Amino acid sequence: MLAIILSACLATDPNVCKDYKISLDANTDPTTCVMDAPPYFAKWTEEHPAWRIKRWRCTSASEESI
Prior knowledge:
Blueprint: E1 2-10, E2 17-23, H1 30-47, E3 51-60
């Protein structure tokens, strides 16, 4: 299973950053993850208006560091 990992920083203080995990459907492969990621960014940005996405990646959903 894959997930999108967003690295985002506060709009008011770009030195304060966090990683967020968005879990994906179990049947998602790496190529589909990359191609389907932008709508997830839009939804996440609407739900977290104080944060700005700086980078992202597709990775294993079991990654423990998030």
